[in-house]
Design a protein that fits this description.
It is built from 1 helix and 9 strands. The protein is an alpha+beta fold. A hairpin with an 8-residue loop joins strand 4 and strand 5.
Length: 150
């Protein structure tokens, strides 16, 4: 007849197990770090961030001013058919003003901002909607237009 020993009293398999688990974990984490650094070198696939160049950057409150906005990609190339929207931030506009960039990536918008009572400076926010079916994205904040008291 066989005698069965209790599982709890069998220590043969447990003796080296904790250190082996730690070694496997360290090797796994190191391998993952190496693979992630290799992928990090590739960069983003098919996405180019856009930004806006503003001329002039500073405008007077209470005065209608034509502002030229140029949409450019990270590589410095201009972006055509992008929709540019200028809206109130710290300074106030009656309504948001929008326009679409031409072949050279520029659009000229007429802005008439106001400042709140007691306010000396403010800003207008600019948002860009990249053209559809392109690799352009607008995920970061864009340049602002500064409005000063005249």
């Amino acid at each position: 007849m066989r005698t069965f020993t209790r599982f709890a009293s069998d220590e043969r398999a447990i003796e080296g197990l904790p250190i082996r688990l730690i070694i496997v974990l360290v090797v796994g984490v190191a391998s993952l770090a190496i693979m992630m650094s290799m992928l990090g070198g590739i960069g983003t696939l098919a996405e180019t961030e856009v930004d806006v160049e503003v001329d002039p950057v500073t405008i007077d409150a209470g005065t209608t001013t034509d502002v030229q906005l140029t949409v450019v990609g990270e590589d410095g190339n201009t972006v055509e058919d992008a929709t540019v929207i200028v809206m109130s931030d710290d300074a106030w506009l009656d309504t948001a003003v929008k326009g679409e960039t031409s072949v050279d990536g520029t659009v000229t918008l007429s802005l008439d901002p106001e400042l709140r009572q007691g306010q000396r400076t403010g800003s207008l926010a600019i948002d860009v909607v990249p053209p559809t079916n392109t690799d352009y994205v607008n995920e970061q904040d864009n340049t602002e237009i500064v409005v000063i008291e005249n």
